[in-house]
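Support request from a user on the community tier.

User writes: "When I paste my structure tokens into the form, the page sometimes reloads and wipes my input. The last time it worked, I copied everything first. Here is what I submitted, just in case something in the input itself triggers the reload:"
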């Protein structure tokens, strides 16, 4: 299997083809693939997902993939390194972009193709076409506008995957979903994940929220938070070069020792071993 290594912070490719021109491969960068039209199959880590018409796929570093094109397909591909999103922003915003990529990648492990609500497809397609046009007009060089267009695409993806409700005023049937959205939004803020804080936000007792969440999700609220946090940490370890101290701080650990114990408990390995095993692929 080939590995495509990219050193430029961003690279754009747009083409129409009746046959996928690349072998099965992985890479050192993130990749967003928008299909404007066509029919075929996307093979991601040996999982096969058919597409027909518009489709959108997000690939993480280490993902193995290729397309089997059955009818002529128009592709727009954005290949980018994480630093491209966060290299010129303050630390708080940098953490937010890192977290967003972690969330998208964790979600992508469960669902190969990204699902958008109907009205969002046109917006995302227009943003892809604008980035392609900007790339071509700039003689295949990155610029500030392209950063903002890419961020716009990722924000739309987040909105479709996780929603943007504040979680208040939900019926009992949807309360667990509102709590999940809250956890996803504040996973890096331990104080906002306490039962006291959550019960105050949703105007219900902590015991009732805990009981309802366990009934609906089959797992305790505390355990869900811990497992979700570990998934995000694991993604950061595998797909970034951030120092362990930085990752520990981003997820609210008071010191690296507690961080190491947490990762060992949920991953069966210490953070360095998880990172090294990923680099060995």
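"...and here is what came back when it finally went through:"
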């Amino acid at each position: 299997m080939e590995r495509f290594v990219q050193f430029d912070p961003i690279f754009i490719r747009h083409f129409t083809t009746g046959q996928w021109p690349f072998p099965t491969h992985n890479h050192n960068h993130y990749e967003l693939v928008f299909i404007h039209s066509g029919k075929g199959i996307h093979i991601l880590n040996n999982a096969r997902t058919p597409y027909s018409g518009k489709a959108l796929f997000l690939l993480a570093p280490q993902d193995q993939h290729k397309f089997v094109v059955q009818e002529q397909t128009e592709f727009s591909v954005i290949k980018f390194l994480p630093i491209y999103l966060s290299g010129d922003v303050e630390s708080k915003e940098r953490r937010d972009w890192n977290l967003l990529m972690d969330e998208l990648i964790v979600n992508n492990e469960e669902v190969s193709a990204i699902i958008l609500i109907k009205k969002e497809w046109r917006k995302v397609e227009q943003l892809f076409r604008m980035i392609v046009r900007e790339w071509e007009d700039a003689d295949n060089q990155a610029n500030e506008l392209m950063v903002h267009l890419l961020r716009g695409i990722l924000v739309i993806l987040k909105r479709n995957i996780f929603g943007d409700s504040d979680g208040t005023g939900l019926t009992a049937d949807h309360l667990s979903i509102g709590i999940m959205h809250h956890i996803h939004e504040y996973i890096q803020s331990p104080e906002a994940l306490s039962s006291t804080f959550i019960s105050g936000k949703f105007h219900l007792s902590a015991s009732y929220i805990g009981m309802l969440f366990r009934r609906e999700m089959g797992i305790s609220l505390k355990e869900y938070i811990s497992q979700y946090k570990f998934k995000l940490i694991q993604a950061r370890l595998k797909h970034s070069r951030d120092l362990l101290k930085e990752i520990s701080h981003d997820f609210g650990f008071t010191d690296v020792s507690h961080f190491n114990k947490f990762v060992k408990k949920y991953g069966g390995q210490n953070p360095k071993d998880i990172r090294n095993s990923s680099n060995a692929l």
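Agent notes: The reload is a front-end session timeout and is unrelated to the input. The longest strand covers residues 65-80. Confidence is low (pLDDT under 50) at residues 165-173. Escalated to web team.
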